[in-house]
Design a protein that fits this description.
Length: 433
């Protein structure tokens, strides 16, 4: 970015930030929120006329617009985006920028990025200058806050991209830490940098906390923000114990900035610019996949996009916001354990239920994984200080599965395998599908 472009970008961020502040009261009143959402939805629909994929649906009702998933989103890349950008050329640019680790190239003024995710399933995303400015403004408004003094942010990411580079300014200094390289180097850098804010996935934050506990690293950031992976209650309490502050969460993925923690520590969807529909996945209607529409994304519109994440619905929040509260992000639909009961019916066990069974079985566990590796085989590993813990976990899992009606399951303890650098950590996985 040239100096002129940077100034232009700065002005855009300020304008959007002001807009967030002016509309802040809408987050606290249902009627005002609905009016704001409607206004933004109308403007959004007008922009969809430039999307060959969505144009045919604009005359019909909202429900006629197809609900899509990541697969369709990528498959229809050329037809969905409103800038006639071809998938091949975008992919070429994104891959080249990853190889050279030069994250500035753009295509027709649009930043191109690759999401993490398993190889072969990597998402490709586009963001215009204005969309990036909106993203920065939203993160400033909701997560980082504004203070008129310079603050240093240590940002741990698998790979850098234009979206995050954008947040550099006179008041915020973003320092990027590549999670794919050696951790010892990061400890040295953190110690020199003394960041005011640390942003990273829980598994990275835990590694940092361990170094602080061991006395190998001294730092006292004022804010710790967890991103990208599920933050379990026990990890949150460990981290806040070490850093002596509440851990904030940003629920963010390629599909946008979805939710953030309020001053009460609860996660709220950004419903002033997101439309959230629910696809319930359990009979009690407490868990759902969010179907999101991001009213701020028009270069590569995100419309009725079903996420794979399982959300547990929370009660209204005492902070007064009327936006939907998330009790917990439970994991992904792929990680639900599935089995067949003796009578032929299908049974499911949610990752959160398995997590609770494991952590409640013993106090001696430091780390664990539970994997369904075949239709009737579950393998688990633990790091523990106690020799008994393996048996306790095995018996807790056995009891849970029996209760659910899973009778033919074999449970095997395996030795823990090291986590690959830069990989997202998933403690509970279904690898049998
Ligand atoms: Zn709240």
């Amino acid at each position: 970015m040239t100096a002129k472009e940077r100034r232009k970008f700065g002005r855009k961020v300020l304008r959007h930030l002001l807009d967030f502040r002016l509309n802040r009261s809408c987050l606290y009143q249902q009627e005002k929120l609905a009016r704001l959402q409607n206004r933004r939805r109308k403007a959004f629909m007008r922009r969809l006329e430039s999307s060959p994929f969505y144009r045919p649906y604009l005359k019909g009702s909202w429900e006629d617009i197809p609900v899509i998933n990541k697969h369709v989103f990528m498959d229809q890349f050329d037809a969905i985006n409103t800038c006639s950008i071809k998938k091949e050329e975008a992919m070429e640019i994104a891959l080249e920028s990853e190889r050279s680790r030069d994250f500035s190239p753009e295509l027709h003024g649009v930043a191109v990025g690759l999401s993490s995710g398993t190889s072969g399933h990597r998402g490709l995303f586009l963001a215009s200058l204005d969309e990036r400015a909106k993203w920065v403004a939203a993160v400033l408004d909701r997560a980082i806050g504004i203070q008129f003094r310079k603050r240093k942010i240590a940002f741990f990411l698998r790979a850098n991209n234009n979206l995050y580079e954008s947040a550099k300014s006179r008041l915020l200094q973003f320092d990027f830490f590549d999670t794919t390289i050696d951790f010892d180097e990061h400890i040295l850098r953190l110690s020199t940098l003394q960041p005011d804010i640390v942003i990273g996935q829980p598994s990275v934050l835990i590694e940092i906390a361990k170094e602080v506990e061991k006395g190998r690293l001294e730092m006292a950031p004022e804010q710790i923000i967890s991103v990208a992976e599920v933050l379990t209650p026990e990890d949150a309490s460990y981290l806040s114990g070490v850093f002596k502050k509440r851990i904030e969460q940003v629920y963010q993925c390629t599909e946008g900035f979805l939710a953030h923690t309020c001053e009460e520590g609860a996660l709220h969807f950004n419903e002033d610019f997101l439309i959230i529909e629910r696809k319930y996945v359990d009979e009690a209607r407490r868990r759902y996949h969010p179907i999101i529409t991001d009213l701020f994304r028009t270069t590569q519109p995100v419309v009725r996009y079903e996420l794979n994440d399982i959300i547990q619905e929370g009660p209204p929040c005492s902070c007064g916001r009327v936006t939907t509260r998330i009790k917990q992000i439970e994991g992904r639909a792929d990680d639900v354990f599935r089995f067949t009961r003796p009578n032929g019916s299908e049974g499911v066990i949610f990752p959160d239920t398995i997590r609770r069974a494991v952590i409640n079985s013993t106090h001696a566990i430091q780390e664990y994984t539970v994997r369904q590796t075949a239709p009737a085989l579950v393998q688990f590993s633990i790091h523990s200080l106690s020799g008994e813990a393996g048996l306790q976990v095995k018996s807790a899992l056995g009891a849970l599965f029996q209760e659910a009606g899973w009778q033919d399951v074999t449970i095997v303890q395996e030795s823990p395998s090291p986590i690959k650098k830069g990989e997202k950590r998933r403690r509970i996985k279904n690898e049998s599908i």
